[in-house]
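Can't paste images in this forum, so I'm doing it all in text. The chain is below; anyone willing to post the predicted structure tokens underneath?
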Amino acid sequence: MARQMNKLSALQVNRISTPGWHGDGGGLWLQLTPTGSRSWVFRYTREGRQHVLGLGPTHTVRLADARERARLLRLQLVNGIDPAQARKVEKAARASEKIKRRTFDECAEAYIEAKQPQWSSDKSAPQWRSSLATYASPIIGKLDVADIDTPHVLACLKPIWTTKP
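Text version of the structure:
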């Protein structure tokens, strides 16, 4: 017997007042909390473990949109992709991309802040800042770290290679 899909109507979604999980079919559920907040979730089991993925609140995500999102997640499952793991990978990729979009000056300051407690002298941090401001920042300070290449680094180092230790 085939599982029933699209059990809920838009009117029912607005009228349900009992807290709990209300199924629409195909893993799509309306979650109504005791405080009255409503959200869409996709529930599935993979390798014996239950997974629950939030799809968004009902005031933002319409029933039709929630059904489409659930359909796409079911397609991932059919294709052997774990939607929860795919989300984690995507989130990590976004975080990595965000880091790559940081400028050299931002990364240099973050590095100095992170390493400062390990340095034995209080003079080290100001020396690092001064050296980077003098030799690196004018050339690569405003560039995204993802865009810095060997020629950029050489442009910073060649003028001081033979004169500075």
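Residues 18 and 32 are 7 Å apart (CA to CA). The chain has a mean pLDDT of 92.
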